[in-house]
Specification:
Layout lengths: L4 E2 L2 E2 L1 E7 L8 E6 L2 E7 L13 E4 L2 H5 L4 E5 L5 H4 L2 H5 L7 E4 H14 L7 E4 L4 E4 L3 E7 L8 E7 L2 E5 L17 H10 L1 E7 L16 H10 L4 E4 L5 H13 L3 E5 L1 H13 L12 H4 L7 E5 L9 H6 L13 E4 L8 H13 L3 E3 L14 H11 L1 E7 L3 H13 L15 E5 L2 E5 L6 E4 L6 E2 L1 H13 L1 E9 L9 E5 L7 H18 L1 H4 E2 L7 E2 L1 H20 L4 E9 L21 H6 L20 H8 L3 H8 L39
Parallel strand pairs: 5-7, 7-8, 8-9, 13-14, 14-20, 15-17, 15-18, 16-17, 18-19, 25-29
Antiparallel strand pairs: 1-2, 3-4, 3-21, 4-5, 6-23, 10-11, 11-12, 12-13, 21-22, 23-24, 25-26, 27-28
Helix pairs in contact: 4-8, 5-12, 6-7, 15-17
Length: 674
């Protein structure tokens, strides 16, 4: 367990597990003695190379290893990058209590019920200036701030070493839509009392000036509503409650009924109305099936899809895949959001598709229909002026943002040696008169598939990347327990672009198999004195896969995923002698051969225009003796898995397949592997 003292001085450890050098998955740990307190636990969305991944979470190994020390969690606000990871984490460890704003806790409750983890914690809602005690060492006051979601807070955390101000996401909005002003007075109070360290949001640290207030978009949205001749379709972040509230206000002003599309939009509006953050009559909303009967001039559709998400309502509409809404040439479609880093391509593709369908699309900074919820440089200066911190740590942003924020702090009088730029897993150690980096803890990412249960590990992600870039080759071979190849290998390609024909690849596969049997068999086969030797069939498969992959990389400059399926045969099975016309392998034998002793093949690659090879009758007879599931696997679509270790089984004699006309290729129905 980490010590809570630095020499004779008490030490507070602050450990970000997410949100540094990136946008999203904000997760931070406060640690003193034997107690841990969490602040937020968010998620991020996958990049283009994360095939099949739906959600990105921080690696919580450190929390799982220290779960008995967790005393509670503090939530600053209800955005997904701050609460989205909580239901998943609760499947791995319990959290005694979670304190947070009413809106965020209402949204979290629904997520926890869906994930069936409501019994793993207790939820407590808080109001502005509420003070909660977490464990014996942490006292947290919730200070109202302004952000792009209602009910957002900064934190003043009193610890044994001093007061820590953790801003959360913020900007200074002096005309808030909901009338809830930033509690500047309370922040200044802590500045007068003395703030040991400020951990401050850096998202817009590169932007000069102050971030515009949320109300700034109202007149621009109003103008576009007034000019629209047909339906108005608006997409924005569902969690942007203030923006949604203004859009509904404008709908009433312009006499339009509202249809809602998107699960998150429906859920957030329902919870925000229930809690009083959105006020509008029930008659404003019309079910989407009925709103089609209204005149276009009296219709507004409010939906998800501002980030070009593939399954979101607007994206499906742009692809003409939505069952209830189709784009009309008279539609005005408004993107009241800016793309999150990494989503730009999907957003512009959605805009292009909508334009090609004839709609008028309003988007971009020049239209003034979106403002950020994060403070810019002047907001940061005001926060530093209010809190007057002794030490400073920029958080929540990519590296260049952290650097820009630190320069702003220096311009406000914070010495350079009183601040740290950190990464996920770094440990900030604070005493009343020092700040330094401690030994880092394990940090990284966990990737979740569509089920939000299965972790996509690095090996799976690499295999998916290989499949996407170079395709897959499956190789079926028969090897007897006395180390002889019993039939010519069967090679199958999917998604592989190569000038080599199937015969060439089959010959190369033969060579790799032969090399492994001649040079690795003694290490992979162990005679235990039983009726049959103990063969490491998985090791045999791996040796063949690695060898063939190196050859393809050297000969053809491609790196497909290679899956070798070995069918064991009993000892004494007649050995397959190989093709008589194949050039012998000239590389040296022994362990060194695999490393670098192979000769580059000088064989002429023949382009026969087909990947299918008519095997000799003897080869077909040998493969026909395989058990049915294995034989079917040779021609089935490949699967990204390695055949488990299997024991040798006696061959089953099956009549040879009849010869087929030269212009026909037999196709087998794929069956599940046995």
């Amino acid at each position: 367990m980490p010590t809570s003292t630095n020499g004779n001085k008490p030490t507070l450890r602050v450990i970000p597990l997410g949100g540094l050098h990136e946008i999203g998955k904000n997760t931070c740990v406060f640690e003193y003695g034997d107690e841990l307190m969490l602040v937020d636990a968010g998620l991020a969305f996958p990049s283009d190379g994360m095939h099949g991944v739906n959600v990105v979470l921080p690696d919580t190994s450190y929390l799982r290893e220290n779960q008995k020390r967790i005393r509670g969690m503090i939530v600053t606000h209800g955005h997904e990058d701050h609460i989205g990871g909580i239901p998943h984490h609760l499947k791995n460890f319990s959290i005694p209590v979670i304190y947070g704003p009413r809106l965020a806790m209402s949204m979290l409750q629904g997520k926890m019920e869906e994930a069936a983890v409501t019994d793993r914690t207790i939820i407590q809602t808080v109001s502005p200036r509420d003070i909660v005690k977490v464990g014996q060492h942490f006292q947290v006051e919730f200070i109202r701030n302004t952000h792009s979601i209602a009910d957002s807070f900064s934190l003043a955390i009193t610890t044994p070493v001093g007061v820590i101000v953790f801003t959360g996401d913020f900007k200074f909005d002096h005309t808030p839509v909901d009338g809830e002003y930033f509690d500047i007075q309370r922040m200044a109070h802590y500045g007068e009392q003395g703030v040991l360290c400020l951990f401050s949001d850096s998202t817009n640290a590169e932007l000069p000036g102050s971030t515009l207030p949320e109300r700034a978009v109202f007149p621009n949205l109003d103008r576009n509503f007034a000019k629209a001749e047909g339906r108005v379709i608006v997409t924005t972040f569902a969690s942007s409650v203030h923006r949604v509230s203004m859009i509904l206000e404008l709908a009433m002003k312009h006499g339009r009924k509202v249809g809602l599309l998107g699960r998150s939009m429906l859920n957030v509006i329902a919870k925000a109305r229930e809690l009083g953050y959105i006020r509008c009559p029930d008659e404003l909303f019309v079910p989407i099936k009925q709103i089609r009967d209204l005149p276009d001039r009296e219709t507004l559709l409010l939906m998800t899809g501002s980030q070009g998400e593939e399954l979101a309502a607007l994206s499906r509409i742009s692809r003409c895949e939505h069952p209830q809404v189709q784009v009309k040439a008279s539609d005005t479609i408004i993107f009241s959001a800016s793309p999150i880093p990494g989503n730009t391509i999907s957003v512009v593709n959605t805009i292009d598709r909508l334009m090609m369908l004839g709609a008028k699309v309003v988007y971009g900074k020049g239209e003034g229909i979106h403002v950020s919820g994060h403070g810019s440089q002047e907001d940061h200066k005001l926060m530093i002026a209010l809190t007057r911190p002794k030490y400073f740590v920029p958080v929540h942003g990519e590296h260049r943002m952290l650097v820009a924020h630190s320069k702003t702090a220096q311009s406000m009088g914070v010495p350079a040696d009183h601040m740290l730029i950190i990464d996920n897993g770094d440990v900030v150690e604070l005493t009343p008169d020092s700040i330094r980096k401690g030994d880092p803890v394990k940090a990284g990412i966990e990737l979740l598939d569509a089920s939000r249960n299965g972790i996509v590990d690095a090996r799976v992600l690499k295999e998916r990347q290989q499949l996407a870039e170079d395709g897959v080759i499956t190789l079926l071979t028969v090897i007897s327990t006395d180390g002889a190849m019993g039939a010519p290998p069967r090679v199958n390609l999917r998604g592989v672009v190569t000038t080599a024909d199937a015969r060439k690849l089959s010959i190369w596969a033969e060579r790799e198999i032969t090399w492994v049997l001649e040079n690795r068999w003694n290490q992979l086969c162990r005679n235990t004195g039983g009726t049959a030797p103990d063969v490491d069939w998985v090791g045999v498969q791996r040796e063949i896969e690695v060898g063939l992959q190196r050859r393809l990389r050297r000969e053809l400059q491609v790196e497909p995923l290679i899956i070798c399926l070995v069918q064991p045969a009993p000892a004494g099975t007649p050995a397959y002698k190989g093709r008589a016309d194949a050039e012998p392998d000239s590389r040296p034998a022994g362990r060194g051969g695999r490393q670098g002793g192979r000769e580059t093949s000088r064989e002429i690659i023949r382009n026969v225009g087909s990947r299918s090879e008519a095997a000799p009758a003897a080869a077909r007879q040998a493969v026909a003796t395989l058990p049915a599931p294995a034989a079917a696997t040779a021609t089935a679509a490949p699967v990204a898995a390695v055949t488990p270790v299997v024991k040798a089984a006696p061959a089953v004699s099956v009549p040879a397949e009849p010869e087929m006309p030269a212009n026909r290729v037999r196709r087998r129905r794929s069956t599940a592997a046995g």
